[in-house]
Amino acid sequence: MIIASDRRLHSVNLPIPTGWFQVLYSSELEVGQAKPLEYFDQEMVAFRTESGQAKVVDAYCPHMGAHLGYGIRDQAGHGSAVVGESIVCPFHGWAYDGEGKCTHIPYAKNMPPKVAREEQVLGTWHVREINQCILVWYHPHGEAPTYEPLEIAEANSENSDWGELDTHSWEINTHMQEVGENAVDSVHFLYVHGTKDIPDAEVMEFEGHTRRGLLRTRNPTPQGIIEGSIENQNIGPGLAVVRFSGIVDTVLLAHLTPVTATHTRAFYSFIQKASDAESGKSRIAEAIVRNICQQMEEDRIIWDRKKYYEKPMLCDGDGPFAKFRKWYKQFLIE
């Protein structure tokens, strides 16, 4: 029997997952600055208030529909003006705070009823600024967060033992779940990335909104094989921390954010010990980052072109894909 290949483009028919997702690095949003954002198949605007708080609101002014992320005249080429704790619409000067309340209409004598009652008139997003990243909470029905992001000690900007974030990003043309499944797929290391063997999956745990894995690795060096490990942990579908040990300790914040249901943006932030960066290990430390980035490029060739099977034909040597998908399903809310 001949099994014909379907040449049509196959999209993953899964909804955008709910959870915490990175939209910016903290360093990308200065005090008094506003930036347009497009995530979750929606348009938003981030701004940092005079007091230093990062806020994210819906993009369109409820007055006449102007986009709040694009400034005019003195702000041309930048986001809208931020005055005090509010973002100012470039069309008519209406101002809104991070809670979605209109705080000022410069020419109005009689305020609209909702403004006079100090009601929320602009959609807002839950924001957390942690690990030098700005995160927002997405839920298709606007429900409040059900868990909190995890603070990573190595990513604290005041932790002098660890260096600055080394940031990289990728645009991936598939659903986030397809990218996340790599965490339980130790076999692909051999065939996609050309490792000497398949890492040993020592731990694969799924609990609540978290997932944890531990792979044992064998790293060939001129001095012989060095035993190492890759510990990876998910906090929901969008946030992950990966710790590489063995040659040079490296911490990776591996964050995935959905632009649309089938377009994922990957934010990778590497952190290494300050002492390693300043020592003879610096070249090795840089080589580790380059190698992981090369692996992402190799993975992307697969992700951008593969077809999603709801029931893949698995064998006993494959990873726990079924357990991963069962865990992931809690975030896929129609």
Shape: globular
CATH architecture of the largest domain: Alpha-Beta Complex
Which topology of the largest domain does CATH recognise?
A: Naphthalene 1,2-dioxygenase Alpha Subunit, Chain A, domain 1
CATH class of the largest domain: Alpha Beta
Major beta sheet summary: 7 strands, antiparallel
- Order of secondary-structure elements: EEEEEEEEHEEEHHEEEEEEHHH
Radius of gyration: 23 Å
Q: Can you say what the CATH homologous superfamily of the largest domain is?
A: Naphthalene 1,2-dioxygenase Alpha Subunit, Chain A, domain 1
Query: How much is the average pLDDT?
Result: 91
Portion in strands: 25-35%
Q: What gap, in angstroms, lies between the N and C termini?
A: 38 Å
Low-confidence runs: 1-9
Q: What number of structural domains do the residues give?
A: 2
Helix content: 10-25%
SS field, number of helical segments: 6
Tally of extended strands? Answer: 17
Enzyme class: oxidoreductase
Family: Belongs to the cholesterol 7-desaturase family.
Keywords: 2Fe-2S, Iron, Iron-sulfur, Membrane, Metal-binding, Oxidoreductase, Transmembrane, Transmembrane helix
Pathway: Steroid hormone biosynthesis; dafachronic acid biosynthesis; Hormone biosynthesis
Give the helices and strands, then pairings.
Blueprint (H helix, E strand, L loop, with lengths): L18 E7 L8 E6 L2 E7 L5 E5 L23 E2 L2 E3 L6 E3 L4 E3 L8 H4 L10 E4 L2 E6 L27 E7 L3 H5 L7 H5 L7 E8 L2 E12 L2 E12 L3 E7 L4 E11 L2 E10 L1 H4 L4 H22 L17 H8 L6
Antiparallel strand pairs: 1-10, 2-3, 3-4, 5-6, 6-7, 7-8, 9-10, 11-17, 12-13, 13-14, 14-15, 15-16, 16-17
